[in-house]
Specification:
Low-confidence stretches of chain B: none
Chains: A alpha+beta, B alpha/beta, C mainly alpha
Strand content of chain B: 5-15%
Distance between the termini of chain B: 47 Å
Structural class of chain B: alpha/beta
Distance between the termini of chain A: 73 Å
Oligomer: heterotrimer
Number of strands of chain B: 34
Bound molecules: ligand MGD, iron/sulfur cluster, molybdenum atom
Helix content of chain B: 10-25%
Strand content of chain A: 15-25%
Strand order of the largest sheet of chain A: 8-1-9
Shape of chain A: elongated
Number of helices of chain A: 7
Radius of gyration of chain A: 27 Å
Largest sheet of chain A: 3 strands, mixed
Number of strands of chain A: 9
Largest sheet of chain B: 7 strands, mixed
Amino acid sequence: MTSLPLNPSTKKLGLVIDLDTCVGCQACATSCKEWNAQGDSGPLTDTDPHGADPSGPWFNRIHGYEVKEQGRDDSRIVNFPRSCLHCEEPACVTVCPTGASYKRAEDGIVLINPDTCIGCKLCSWACPYGAREYDYMQGVMKKCTLCVDRIYNTNLEPEDQVPACVKACPTGARHFGDLGDENSDVSLLVKERGGYDLLPELGYKPTNKYLPPRARRETKQAHIEALPKSNGSPMEKLFLWADKLLNKGSGSVASGEDNSGKLEG
Amino acid sequence: MAQPQINTSPKNWDEIKTTTCYMCACRCGIKVHLKDGRVTYIDGNRDHPVNKGIICGKGAAGIKQHYSPARLSKPLIRVGERGSGEFREIEWEEALRTATLWLSETRNTNPAKLAFFTGRDQSQGLTGWWASQFGTPNYAAHGGFCSVNMAAAGLYTYGGSFWEFGEPDWKHTKYFLLFGVAEDHGSNPIKAGLGKLKARGTKIVSINPVKTGYSAIADEWIGIRPGTDGLFVSALIHELLHAQKIDGDYLARYTNSSWLVIENKGGPDDGLIARNAAGNPLVWDHHINRAVVANTSDATPKLMGRFVLDDGRKVVTSFTLIAERFTAEEYSPDGVAERCGVKAETIRRIASELAHTAFEDTVELDIPWTDYQGRRHEKTIGRPVAMHAMRGISAHANGFHTCRTIHILQIMLGTIDVPGGSRYKPPFPKSIPPNVKPAGRVGQVRPNTPLPGPPLGFITSPEDLLVDENGTPQRIDKAYSWDAPLSAHGMMHMVINNAAKDDPYNIDVLFMYMANMSWNSAMNVPDTIKALTSKRTDGEYVIPKIIYSDAYASEMVHYADLILPDTTYLERWDCISMLDRPISEADGPADSIRQPVVEPDRDVRAFQTVLLDLGARLGLPGMTNAEGKPRYPGGYPDYIVNHERAPGLGPLAGFRGKDGKAAGRGAVNPNQLQAYIDNGSYWFQELPDNMKYYRHVNWDYLDWATFFGFLPRPEPIIHHVYSETLQKFRLSARGHGKVQPPDQHKIRIATYFDPIPFWYAPFEGSMIDETEFPMHAITQRPMAMYHSWGSQNSWLRQILGRNWLYLNKNRAAKLGIAEGDWVDVISHHGRIKGQAKLLDGQNEDTVWTWNAIGKRAGAWGLSPDAPEAKKGFLLNHLISDLLPEREGGYRYSNSDPITGQAAWYDLRVRIEKSADQTAESAPQFKSFKKLKRAK
Amino acid sequence: MNPAYSVILFTTASGAGYGLLSMLSLAGANHGRASTPAFAFSSLAIALALITIGLLSSTLHLGRPERAWRAFSQWRSSWLSREGVAAIITYPLALAFGACWSGIIDLPHLIAPLGYATALTCWITVFCTAKIYSTLKTIRAWHQPLTIPVYLFFSAATGSVWLMAIAYVFGRFAPAQSFLAMVALLVLIVLKFIYWRRLEKDPRTHTMAQATGLGEGVRQWEVPHTSTNFIMKEMGYVVARRNGQKLRILTLGLLDVAFVLIVLSPRWPWLSLPAVPIIMAAAWVERWLFFAQAEHVVGLFYGKENA
Ligand SMILES: Nc1nc2c(c(=O)[nH]1)N[C@H]1C(S)=C(S)[C@@H](COP(=O)(O)OP(=O)(O)OC[C@H]3O[C@@H](n4cnc5c(=O)[nH]c(N)nc54)[C@H](O)[C@@H]3O)O[C@H]1N2
Ligand SMILES: Nc1nc2c(c(=O)[nH]1)N[C@H]1C(S)=C(S)[C@@H](COP(=O)(O)OP(=O)(O)OC[C@H]3O[C@@H](n4cnc5c(=O)[nH]c(N)nc54)[C@H](O)[C@@H]3O)O[C@H]1N2
Ligand code: SF4
Ligand code: SF4
Ligand code: SF4
Ligand code: SF4
Ligand code: SF4
Ligand SMILES: [Mo]
């Protein structure tokens, strides 16, 4: 049913991706590929796998961007994973002539029904985020399923009932949860870190949020004073320091009481 | 139309088996999902100490490795010329008989004529033992071209090391310095750790010429000039010394800073530690104002000062010497700023941040512990500054000293194995250095006789070197010779080219395992290929016989005579042993196994089992029983369970003893492997809290470690900030002692064997015209590719199927190079062509590319027109294996003078826009013929 | 966007077909029964043939043609679905109209209502086709007010030129037909010209900075994959600006030539014959450009500065 759910639940499952922590390791991309290649979306057959132009459907791709910053030569490097954002008002759904592309009423996940998709590709034209990849082998459109076959999968241990990419992510840069509930961990994270939408002006209302890179801390922090510049011979100073240490520590080094930690130069 | 009903609980697998990943050297625990006997999905094992459930980009692509069309399927014997790729498939019996014949001839005459080198070997416990049983000293794995600088610098300084022998205290650290790391051996743990720091908002400073990857998420990026970290760190030490922001108690108690060094210019004992008759080091006691034995509880040692012993010898505390070195102006921020491209004020600021964190922001854990002098500490106090460093430091010819400089900084701040600092992972800390000496000295190599010890170890004086009375190296790679005395991991990168020059001697058989030595792990690929294929006048190959075990159709396979096809990592037994590189956690020891989760569908055999078979056929004592029958008829799993190195000590520490309850030391447990499988294919024992910190001087820990066989005796491991070992070599070069270097080596040894770390320009920098070759060229590990073997992976190669040469934008503009231009990269040794990409975030004088993406056409089961071959390229072609001539015309290997570590990143180049802009990289080697492989 | 020939053929052929069919049915509606059954049959046959060729080729573009029937189900929300429905409804109407118009069935009073109905469904179908493109916010070049009129007038222009040619062959040529074609073509040329001018002028609406949310001065330094993928093949298609300009001029040139022929056709009616291939060629090139010069916002993630 290509029309959006008439009475959707308030539940909005999605991902929150932390661009301040992502190192661009591709773990989420390959974990996604392998889970979905064997799951309902599979097989994600690759063409020319060992030849000149290997290619196949992936639901998650990681870009590397460089952002020029005011008055600096070295740009900031940001690794940017991109997958379906499970939009609230996705044209990818409404344009679909067959109803294969649909948004679930119960949790807002946007899916494609592989049994009814005719492979007209119109939905991929309608998606601003390049989230839909056509499977040339099977002649149907495919995309991120938010691992709908994992997150409710009772054959998996409870803590594994998260998207494959989220479980895989070595740095913990990917968070999964209900963005419809403003008290959920992900919603709080979005609030705290100023999570944002991609291309909001298009009005697709993405569910997934991106956490922007934090400001760097590479300038002098107020509470840290510069080290005293020893005028005169540093060696003399060190001799004095060493003796002071002994007198102070004269008890200490021998006695049981421990002084390290309290010591200041 | 209603919303389709879908099954949200599909079970796409019949069973799940745990094992250990081998898509890289990190050794994470994985869960392999199987359906109808086929691998369908691999994810991380949440219980596993290494990865705790996470998996990386490579690990998750394991399926495509396991089912790669590049897999070898049957033993092969060469029929065409070497490199032609013309082979005949043979049966295993013929293969093993051939190998036995070749090897026994060698063993009967001169076992040293076998060079056995094992690359990315994770079974060095077995392979090293096999080599010494065979009787050849010519054994090593990849360490020599990898990161021996880190291992040696650490093990000779504080009994631990970076690499994966230790880890930052991710939980408590408040300031983290990361030197020269793109990926690390601990691929997943370091990512998880960085994630933790990010979550806690801990400041991360990344020192790296390139800003990608981990540097991209750091709070501060120091785009240092390659090879100059020693200067940067020295300047930090300089600042801390000037401000006396140093942990004096830590230095006095746990290091040799207060030990007395003899000052006797020109004398045979100059620079040695003053010792009493019993050989115990002396310190100067503050109260009684006399020398007393060091590290005793009643001593109050002075840290600074020059004194005269009763016997009249002049002495000085080692810390005085260290202070004198680093307070010198040459190491001041202003003194180093220009050379390493870091602003002086930045260095000063970081120094003050370090001091602040270490001394004002200490961590106190409510964990009482007792030190080696019986002093009870009510709390465990930590200075929460952690550091980690890898190949950005080690892959330079000054890496050993630079790494030692970093350790000295850590030690001065009192951050080794303290809360928030850099922690050991058992079996570390070890004695300084670990008490194993390399065997293979003159007279120890005899026909049909095992070596008296292991081929690799740690030497402490010139007497331990493997050289004859003329100073000639005894090993084919010249390890433990005057070329590189402390080459604790051997020098695999020198084997082929040395052997081809009969320098120091010729060999009969080159036997290699898991190392792509004709390509990405070779320095100077073109000459290495020549060396592999060159013939003597009589038409015989200079390297007469090459046996190689690989699992895939790598470049190296094409240059071997006899190929022993291995299984994939999902088809065999393995043990990740504490006798090898451990997978332990800082919180406790751990080891693990691999179990065959699927049966091979090809006529291949696990290399370790084949090796034991060969050992039995050769009648190697350890591998045969009294009747001369195989001692481990069950192959590797049999060995893993039943082999004992010392009574009760075997390859696996877990589930020992008849009942499987013993840990560390215990009788053989016939059901040990099952016990591991039942436990998720790993074993981990968490240490009690009072044994988790200060372990180098932690009474309870030292006791426990001795029981576990990690230490010979429960003695404190006093950090060697001053290295007497190095001084001994320097003295020999000055003409003292029984064993002295030949004249040609004297200046070099005297210069570089400085007991106190110092900085010198990397050799390519100092021996090559910097104006003609103004740029540094380095590589980085791509996170989703593992050296050569990732490219056969149809998923990973979609992500990274070719590489580019990255240039700094401003510099490119000056050179008139635009994004996408094809450029020539020229070194003093050669020229390659690659395509340029521009980046802001990299040091102006540095160019870089992803490592090992370039492939030889026809290899790896890829079509000859694959982008890896047509557009990809290697820097290796430009990297000379030898340095320009030095004193007396001798050409040293392009390595660290102390450890023999290959100096990959010393490469200097010039960049020019290519005259020929056709979209193809150069050089293009002749494409291999298609190899017989698995269908 | 990748200019898939199946889609180009579909939109041009069926566009002309519906144009022609609507002309015929309007003619019938106004003048009653066709002069000769032969004329009725062959003209309708040609119209339906053009339409059918178009529709068939459009199914070639599908990954699962055998499931094409499913495309009628979502007329409530999908313009593609509506197009399908309209296209199908047109057939029975056209046949019924043809039967009456040609005189096979002698119900003259039905010719007019059936004629108007057929014409209407023709226009609706073309309108839906245009709507499919014009509703896509992701493609600036299509999300334009002129997209729909251009489609409609292309259909009218091509259709009327076909009508002239057929009429000439059957000796039924009338200057009124030329006049009709002239008007359609003139409007079309003006519309298309304005359409292109507007694209040139109005600033690119979306930037890479917006797409990534990373602010100004963002650029891609590392591609997510060194090999190609569907997105790059389907949406990464680019024509060199210069070639694009040349082809636009070619399009307008061809349209102008067609226009001249039509202007002269009242005097030399045979000129309507060469007018057909010329205007169809123009349609083909224009449609090719319509796709090839359309930039999809996803390009922003793949390194395009704006789209
Ligand atoms: N320019 C440049 N060169 C470098 C480096 C660099 O940074 N820059 N890094 C250096 C370093 S640190 C290292 S460690 C080396 C690594 O280089 P190598 O030691 O050559 O490691 P790999 O290329 O990963 O693979 C070695 C071989 O192991 C084979 N293999 C894989 N799995 C198995 C298996 O299960 N069984 C068997 N028998 N064989 C298997 C592969 O097919 C491959 O042929 O490269 C070095 N070379
Ligand atoms: N994904 C993946 N993981 C791997 C491997 C792999 O091939 N792929 N290989 C494994 C192996 S064998 C090894 S040895 C480890 C190595 O792991 P790393 O130590 O991360 O090795 P490299 O990738 O060589 O990273 C070297 C880093 O140092 C920087 N660098 C170069 N010169 C200097 C310098 O002078 N100073 C400083 N500060 N930085 C410098 C480079 O820019 C680069 O970022 O990775 C292991 N893990
Ligand atoms: S796995 Fe995590 S860190 Fe790696 S690329 Fe994906 S999001 Fe980034
Ligand atoms: S990201 Fe694209 S595919 Fe996913 S819901 Fe939004 S529009 Fe549809
Ligand atoms: S490709 Fe499939 S899902 Fe997409 S619009 Fe066409 S039918 Fe719907
Ligand atoms: S949620 Fe599942 S399908 Fe979507 S990107 Fe992550 S792993 Fe892929
Ligand atoms: S880091 Fe990745 S490849 Fe390496 S062992 Fe772990 S999971 Fe496997
Ligand atoms: Mo390595």
